[in-house]
Write a structure and sequence with these properties.
elongated; 3-stranded antiparallel sheet; 3 helices; alpha+beta; 189 residues; Tetrahydropterin Synthase, Chain A; 11 strands
């Protein structure tokens, strides 16, 4: 039996991007608040539909544009950052790394993200998952095998995240279930 065939589509450049502010914490420090004109690229791979396409380009571009617009001209707040003290007020977010790195930002200027750091890697992961959610809401892309999102901070640095969308086989589903319950997949403990 031959190997299954796969095709890939790519959308990038043009108006697929967003301009946002952020800072990241690393190695015991906190970067100064700064921003990027982020570029976004999305690759979708899988078999061809009965209409001979992987996924409708227009549908994918519209979803990506909508999601980028939500992050455009906003501060990207990593809610799960263990080094930040984050306090939500009625009209603002208060962020504190230390006595020298404190910010009070209007809620309307902030996108709270369920991530540990606002790195390009985490942004790519978050965007990939949201794209798949939107595709599912529109009953699109059910046969996709993989979705890869790239977040470009500059022309020389891009982070990628790949989401495997292949349906689990019986053995991988059993392994995942055993891992979740801490029960060994084979043998006894």
């Amino acid at each position: 039996m031959g190997r299954p065939m796969s095709w890939k589509i790519l959308i990038e450049r043009g108006n697929l991007g967003f301009s946002s502010a952020h800072f990241i914490t690393f190695d015991g420090t906190c970067e100064p608040l700064h921003g990027h004109n982020y570029g976004v690229r999305v690759e979708a791979s899988g078999p061809l539909t009965p209409d001979s396409y992987v996924l409708d380009f227009v549908v994918l571009k519209n979803i990506v544009r909508e999601l980028c617009k939500e992050w455009d001209h906003r501060f990207l707040l990593p809610l799960n950052n263990p080094h930040l003290r984050v306090t939500e007020h009625d009209t603002a977010w208060e962020l504190e790394y230390d006595a020298e790195n404190r910010y009070l930002l209007a809620k309307t200027a902030v996108v709270p993200l369920p991530v540990d750091n606002a790195t390009a890697e985490r942004l790519a992961e978050r965007l990939a998952k949201r794209i798949v959610e939107r595709l599912r809401e529109r009953n699109q892309g059910q046969s996709l095998a993989r979705l890869t999102v790239g977040i470009e901070e500059t022309e020389m640095q891009t982070a990628f995240y790949t989401l495997d969308l292949s349906p689990p086989t019986a053995s991988t589903a059993a392994d995942e279930q055993d891992t979740e319950t801490n029960v060994p997949a084979h043998g006894t403990s």
